[in-house]
Amino acid sequence: MATLSASASASPPWLNPNPNPNPNSNRSPNFLPDQSQTLDFDSLMASQSQSPPHHSPTAASPGSSSPAAAAPPELTSLLHVSFNQDHACFAAATDNGFRIYNCDPFRELFRREFDGGGIGHVEMLFRCNILALVGGGSHPQYPTNKVMIWDDHQGRCIGELSFRAPVRGVRLRRDRIVVVVEQKIFVYNFADLKLLHQIETVANPKGLCAVSHSSDYLVLACPGLVKGQIRVEHYAQKKTKFIPAHDSRIACFALTLDGQLIATASCKGTLIRIFDTDSGTLLQEVRRGANVAEIFSLAFSSAAQWLGVSSDKGTVHVFSLKVNSNVPDHEKTQHSSSSDAAITPSSPSSSSRSFIKFKGVLPKYFSSEWSVAKFHLNEGSHYTVAFGLQKNTVVILGMDGSFYRCQFDPGHGGEMTQLEYHNFLKPEPETAS
């Protein structure tokens, strides 16, 4: 069930994230320009009377010199952390609310705190004032089977989506809301919360799902109905593509901004594969390591030149990609095997090409493509990686509240240089003005 309140905000409190206007620029705080002009809120149902009562949030001023000054003395528990669509900001869901941060320069933009109510998931929409919230923690602020559409300009929820099962994940586009439950994915129109599509998946407790952002049409990737399979929906083409990516269970995947490439990892965590989402062709395979690892996150750089990988081994890797979103069809060959140990990419790098003639003689390990650069962290901790706005930089977020900004040398590789570190759960010391 979906409900939407009868009022909407007029302008966002945040700056436009895209200083150079383009067809995908976020000109409206709520929806795409054509949708915001035609949306008739008077014809929609009001949700506030139907929603369960909740505590009013308290807010730290976005422009204050010490935004964390209002933080409670007790230690805040971090429940979820995620980047926005262009990796310029990130959101932290805590056991008493949520916080929004800018990545470069690092600073807390604002926070919303509830009286004992936890937020288990917060999803941003670029720098728009509209966010998606899901309750979480020991005392959820909202039911865990609901997605609340929060308008921070009004400081309240303006809509909600209800489900029969707990929500595992949410993805936002300017025109769509995608909600993930254990074995199903729902796609809604953002303007009126109308259900457009339902997709059945294998058990998906991690809420795995990815959507494109830079294109005018939606590309959606999710687990298929078979172990190791990726399902890709090309909505503009009305086309569904199934990719047998791995033999074992899918652990993580990520799309490029235009949705033309997808990087996948299985629960083994040794190999990362890059596929063309239209044809299903395997374009490249890289090796994280020889030992089994849990892959926490995968991230493409904006131009799909680099791929970042984080795992429970406490190392963030950066790989050089030999493919791009415009690989000619005649250079692609169809992917014909899904074995984690026997796939040879259709476009091998120069470093591995000399080993092709020894296929079946030398172990696959020796012909693997390895990372260009790496950064070492605490082993066992959960980290999420993304590429920074500055050239050859990565941003790393830890579930322990750590924020790292690092730089890698694309020519010499090796260990990355740490440029910045903060613990975003703790107040930073004030500096003299």
Account of the 3D structure:
It contains two helices and 31 strands. It folds into two domains: about 1-5 and about 20-205, Lipocalin (Beta Barrel); about 245-433, Beta Barrel (Lipocalin). The strands form seven sheets. A five-stranded antiparallel β-sheet has the order 1-10-9-8-7, with no helix packed on it. The protein has helices at about 35-40, 350-355; strands at about 1-5, 60, 80-85, 90-95, 95-100, 105-115, 120-125, 130-135, 145-150, 155-160, 170, 175-180, 185-190, 195-200, 210, 220-225, 230-235, 240-245, 250-255, 260-265, 270-275, 280-285, 295-300, 305-310, 315-320, 375, 385, 395-400, 400-405, 415, 415-425. About 0% of the residues lie in helices and about 40% in strands. The radius of gyration is 22 Å and the shape is globular. A hairpin with a 5-residue loop joins strand 19 (about 250-255) and strand 20 (about 260-265). By secondary structure, it is an all-beta fold.
**Rounded mean pLDDT score:** 78
Q: How far do the termini sit from each other?
A: 51 Å
| Adjacency order of strands in the biggest sheet | 1-10-9-8-7
**Quick one: overall form?**
globular
Structural class by sheet pairing and helices = mainly beta
What is the helix tally? 2
Report the β-strand fraction as a percent range.
Answer: 35-45%
Low-confidence stretches: 5-56, 60-72, 325-362
Give me the Rg, rounded.
22 Å
Number of domains: 2
What is the CATH topology classification name of the largest domain? Lipocalin
Helix content: under 10%
**CATH class identity of the largest domain:** Mainly Beta
> Would you identify the CATH architecture of the largest domain?
Beta Barrel
The total strand number stands at 31
The largest sheet is: 5 strands, antiparallel
